Description:
Oligomer: single chain
Amino acid sequence: MPQTWFTRLWLGGLVCTCLAATAIGATVPILSGSDLTGVTEWNGTLSVKNADVAISTYGEPVWKAPTLGGQWISYTLSGPGQNPVVNVPLDGSGFILGGPSARFFYQFTLPSAAVSGQVSIWADDTAAVLLDGAVMLALTPNPVRAIWCTEGAAGCQPANAGVVDLSGLSAGTHTISIEAYQLWGNTFGVLYEGAVVIADVPEPSTVLLLASGLLMLAWRRACAVARG
């Protein structure tokens, strides 16, 4: 009898420990301008990694002001009064005829699966967004101009964010690609802010406890079978 109660108590502790190990854990931030060295955040291509340039924390009066610690970035100093970026041509009906002015990449690693998360993207003038090569926010082929950038996602004003859902991502490395377009002159750049909440990663002691629990259950089962 004492052994039975001890076993039940031990198994109850094992269950509680395992449930705690899969609870919601750390937050992985995703912020433009957080790495200006070209390692985890860069412009160019997947293989050619150029360091981004921080334009300004809040350069233009119509731009969305960063609130989580991101910065407006570009491949050059293309903020207010700085280097001009050549426009992507439009046809007579306002349809975009060329490819993006620049591509920006952000790579992040999740030690465990994502419980929830999203990232919001702003761009002057507009952008398309991909996650691990899949289009998450398609480019509007004939964007409507609102002051200095586009209406709707993804523009540069606070309400014109392109939002990408990151919940359900698996553990491992993921890459966000932003294809930004300069259409109407003036300033050029992108801003993104977000985060991913991940499940706790079990500590080695928890894994050992779970393994020993499974072995005990197997042993008890074998004993029960042997007793008939």
